[in-house]
Design a protein that fits this description.
The protein has ten helices and four strands. The chain is mainly α. The strands form two sheets. It has a two-stranded parallel ribbon with strand order 1-4. The protein has a two-stranded antiparallel ribbon with strand order 2-3. Helix 3 crosses helix 8. The longest helix has 21 residues.
C-alpha cells in the first residue's frame, strides 16, 4: 500500500482548506450527517469533534464497528468464492482473496454485496507518475506550440482516467486494513443496526480520517489544534 508520509511538525493550520473540505465531505457520508452554517463557528479540532458528536444520532452501545465491518467482509467474501470463515482472519492477505487475473470483476461483485464502494484499487505508481510527467511537460510545451502542448495535455488526462479505471493494484494489504477503512469511511453502513452508534468510537474515527487522508500525526490533532 502506498502510504502518505507523516507530516512531522505540520498542523491543521498548514493544511489547504480544500483538503479539509474533502475530509468533511467524507465525515458527512460516513456518519450520515450534514454540516450547515455552524461550521463557521468551528475554530479547533475539538470544536469540530464536538459538533460531529452532537449531530450523530442513534442509541449508544459499546460494540465495535470495525469488528462488525470484518464480519460483513467475511460474509461478502464467502458469497463470491468458497472460503472457510474460520480461516479468514484480520491478517489474511487481500492478494490471496482477490487474485490479479479476476481482481476487478471480483471486487466489483464484492462491493455490490457490501453495498459500499471500497475503492481499494489503483493504477501502478510508475504509470501514474509517467502520465503526470507528460501532462506537466505538455503544459510547458504549450507556451511554444499550443497545438502540441494542448494535444499532449488532453492525451495525458485521458490516459490518467483510463489508468484509474483499469488499475488492478491493491491499496491495502490485509482484511483488517480493509475493515478499518470501511468502518471509518462508511460508519453507519457497516453497523449491524444502523439505529445504534458507539459514541466512544466517533472521535477516533474522525481522527483516523484526518490521519489517513492528510498524513497527520496524533500530536497535530489535539482538541486545541486550530484550523487555518
Amino acid at each position: 500500500m502506498d502510504e502518505l508520509p507523516l507530516h512531522s511538525g505540520i498542523g491543521l493550520e498548514n493544511i489547504d482548506p480544500l483538503d479539509i473540505d474533502m475530509i468533511l465531505e467524507k465525515v458527512e457520508i460516513s456518519f450520515h450527517i450534514e454540516f450547515g452554517t455552524e461550521l463557521k463557528q468551528v475554530r479547533t479540532f475539538g470544536d469540530l469533534c464536538d459538533l460531529i458528536a452532537n449531530k450523530v444520532e442513534g442509541r449508544n452501545t459499546n460494540d465495535c464497528t470495525t469488528q462488525q465491518a470484518f464480519y460483513k467482509i467475511r460474509q461478502a467474501i464467502r458469497e463470491i468464492q468458497p472460503y472457510d470463515k474460520d480461516t479468514l482472519k484480520t491478517n489474511t492477505s487481500l492478494e490471496e482473496l482477490f487474485p490479479r487475473t479476476q481482481r476487478r470483476q471480483q471486487i466489483k461483485k464484492f462491493d455490490s454485496i457490501l453495498g459500499i464502494k471500497t475503492q481499494i484499487l489503483q493504477t501502478k505508481g510508475w504509470l501514474l507518475l509517467l502520465l503526470l510527467s507528460v501532462f506537466l511537460a505538455s503544459f510547458v510545451v504549450l507556451f511554444f506550440s499550443w497545438k502540441i502542448g494542448f494535444g499532449g495535455m488532453v492525451l495525458s488526462v485521458i490516459g490518467i482516467n483510463i489508468a484509474s479505471k483499469l488499475g488492478k493494484e491493491l491499496k491495502l494489504k490485509t482484511v483488517g486494513q480493509l475493515a478499518e477503512k470501511i468502518s471509518r469511511e462508511h460508519y453507519n453502513k457497516v453497523r449491524r443496526n444502523a439505529t445504534t452508534i458507539n459514541r466512544a468510537e466517533i472521535i477516533q474515527k474522525v481522527k483516523e480520517l484526518f490521519k489517513e487522508d492528510l498524513g497527520l500525526e496524533d500530536n497535530a490533532l489535539t482538541r486545541d489544534a486550530r484550523f487555518s
